[in-house]
Amino acid sequence: MASTHQRQAPEEHEHRGLFARKSTEQLLADTENQDGLRRAVGALDMTALGVGAIIGTGIFVIIGEAIGVSGPAIILSFVLAGLTCLFSALSYAELASSIPVSGSAYTYGYATLGELAAWIIGWDLLLEYGVSVAAVAVGWGGYLQDLLQSLLSIHLPDAIAGPPGDGGTVNLPAVVLIAGVSALLIVGVKESARTNTVMVITKLGILVFFIIAGAFSIKSSNYTPFAPHGTSGTVDAAALIFFAYIGFDAISTSGEEAKNPGRDLPRSIVGSLLIATLVYILVAIVAVGLASETQLSQSDAPLTTAIRQAGLGSWAGDLLSLGALIAITSVVLTVLYGQTRITYSMARDGLLPRFLGKLTPRGTPLWGCIVFGALAAGMAAFLPLSEIAKLVNIGTLFAFLIVNLGVIVLRRTQSGLERPFRVPLVPVVPLIGAALCVYLMSRQPGITWLRFGVWMAIGLVVYALYGRRHSRVASGRGVRSL
Q: Is residue 19 part of a domain?
């Protein structure tokens, strides 16, 4: 695939040490390793990967908490969060088509800002993806509980159905979900992608049912007052439900497994975001019209609560609970997939232990799936959803910020690089995307910033003690096959 891109100057790395940049030529050459990842994913599966990663806990669970912050103005909150993502999605699309390599923002940071910046963003992505997997798995338990209670009159004991802080001791359903998904990812990327595509089509169908069926029972009085908590509440809700949009960036981690990355990656990234945004807005309009702010904000399964107000019988609520289970399963699958590909890239570069990038005969990172699946399962078992979601938001916004800046830097440093997709009006559009990210980051609570700062400080220590010493790029050793 590297042959379809204009080759840059033959030097492998422009600098040594902390600011060593990995040339785009070397990045593309890495993908030609016959023992590496396999190009087996088409445009439909990649778009489904994006939609699968986006539509999940954010719309099925966190929408309830967000409505408690914004009221009916949650509709505008979704628009604001989606607009923020659109600017960043355009930047992701350009970099993904120009540098079709696994690693997402980590790889782009290596090519544009140097190794230290790449490590920082890579460490941030490990947090974003790992904690995101845990967060969506926690939300899975609430809908499972609702479905078991409704269909089989089975009530899971609180001690094993939720984490400490949410009335339980350990969230066993979340652990089982992550373990099952990790096993599927080890089996193979093609099998994982096809399974995800089926789940995405199913959950979109169920959400379309919610929109159409609920539209006939909307109460106009539920929309007034429209913004009871003012503009501040609307913006704060946008910062919270930003979690609902996380996922389209997972497509960029499949750069080395896309059959036609220059064409399909940009289409899949932007297309999945637009599909999800439209669905979100329509679902928010119907949900607010069906149930009161209090009913939605206090429910662990808000969409199920909303559809039961439509008078369709318990089967409609059960269908929404089933849709939520499928949706959240696909999110866990796609986000954990993305994390293992970032880990693979970092291990290949020597910044993480090499065993994390070792591939099975089927081309899947075995130990990456096992280690990070276990870590995510541990967090899901013992941490409450609301706090996890906030930490994911700030990590994602930071990643988006780097990607927007990376487009500007790469345009200046490698103007001759072939770009199948180009962001319009550079640097204006990326700068707007960066500014929106900074603004939403500023709306995060102080405790979230503190936790994020602690994680990044730990990352710098790990880099100093391990990553810098083993880096193949900074040392000038190049990158060898894992």
A: no
pLDDT, the chain, mean: 82
Query: What are the tens digits of pLDDT across the range 112-122?
Result: 888 888 899 89
The predicted model gives 447-474 an average pLDDT of 90
Number of domains in the chain: 1
* CA 366 – CA 411 distance, rounded (Å): 36
* CATH label of the domain that carries residue 339: 1.20.1740.10
Q: Is 480 part of a structural domain of the chain?
A: no
How confident is the model over 119-132, as a mean pLDDT? 86
pLDDT, residue 73, reads: 94
Residue 94, pLDDT above cutoff 60: yes
Does 438 reside within a domain?
Answer: yes
List the one residue out of 269, 327, 274 whose CA is nearest residue 105: 269
Which residues, other chains included, contact 355 with Cβ-Cβ below 8 Å and sequence gap of 6+?
347, 367
Residue 213: domain span: 40-466
Asked, for residue 28, whether it belongs to a domain, the answer is no
Residues near 200 by Cβ (< 8 Å), separated by ≥ 6? 48, 51, 52, 55, 330
